[in-house]
Amino acid sequence: MIFPNARRVLAAFLLSILLFVTACQAQSPSRFDEVQANSSQQKSGQAVAKDATQGGSFNQFFPTASRGYERVYTQEKKGFAEAKLKKDGKDVALMAISDTRSLPTAAAKFKNATKEIAGYPALEIGSTQTAVLVADRYQVKVLSRDALFTASDREALLKQFDYQGLAKLQ
């Protein structure tokens, strides 16, 4: 026999051709690909309104850190900015400012507010959140991240935001 390994070479060659042909074959789109394509093309119901304020411009209105607290900015994007309030390296509260143009229902819930903080309507949301609506547009929220950070602590922190400056941002 002239080619003793001919079967092995032929088998390897055929296997390579088979792998090449199947790898180059186009795959049909999954159901997730179709949903992604549809949602990307929608113009209504987008997450952020086109005229929403840039999140970076909110940072100047957050209270400064004092009395052993540290303020750490954690997120800013169009229509939203967030900062953590830390004490001894532990998260005690989360502070956020959001433009309600992106979510009008957020502003609507303040219509029945019976409480005010710094002259603006305020709400207790559950047992861990307090929010204020500024100029019928900007929601300022403080969330407790530690059981020792109470509703009165949240209200005291909310009083330190620069609401006059935020109201002029419009």
UniProtKB/TrEMBL annotation:
This is Uncharacterized protein. Residues 1-26 form the signal peptide. It comes from Gloeocapsopsis crepidinum LEGE 06123. Keywords: Signal. The keyword Signal applies. It comes from the Bacteria.
